[in-house]
TrEMBL record:
Domain HTH marR-type intervals: 1-143
Organism, scientific name: Nocardioides koreensis
Matches recorded under SMART domains: HTH_MARR
Name of this chain's protein: HTH marR-type domain-containing protein
Alphabetical list of PANTHER family matching this protein: MARR-FAMILY TRANSCRIPTIONAL REGULATOR, TRANSCRIPTIONAL REGULATOR, MARR FAMILY
């Protein structure tokens, strides 16, 4: 990714946060695919936003910042591959929830192992104190930037 900044301008903090996120995202996805789960990046970005108890399509689309149609297409693909299922919403029988299946949980387990591996690498690079400070700072920023908390 090429970043164009005016000469003498430091790279923005947002970009500095995006670069390690994208690095992690690519490595996690590669590990998931290598483990036999051929999930695309677009599918993964929707899949990772599913609530543990299931999500309605409109909520999922909003969380993934895609249209309802795009989310529906990606969920259809994930459903055909056996990673998610649609079930009746117990709060509203007319509505459907999208839930992770056992096959989907297998992919999540692979992703979590790789995520932990990467975070351990970062902690070795930064040191325990700086790594803990980074986590605290990012959690504090989440309080004012995450609309889903």
């Amino acid at each position: 990714m090429t970043i164009i900044e005016p000469e003498g301008t430091p790279i923005s903090v947002g970009v500095l946060m995006l670069i390690p996120y994208r690095h992690m995202e690519q490595r996690v996805l590669a590990a998931v695919v290598a483990a036999g789960h051929p999930i695309t990046l677009a599918q993964a970005r929707v899949f990772q936003r599913l609530d543990a108890g299931g999500s309605r399509l409109t909520e999922l689309a909003r969380a993934a910042q895609v249209t309802k149609q795009a989310a529906g297409f990606l969920v259809d693909e994930l459903e055909r591959a056996g990673y998610v299922e649609r079930v009746a919403d117990p709060r509203d029988g007319r509505a459907r929830l999208i839930r992770i299946t056992p096959r989907g949980r297998e992919a999540v387990a692979v992703a979590l192992v790789e995520q932990q591996r990467i975070e351990a690498e970062w902690e070795r690079h930064l040191g325990a104190r700086r790594s803990a400070e980074l986590r605290r700072s990012l959690e504090a920023l989440r309080e004012i930037t995450d609309p889903w908390i």
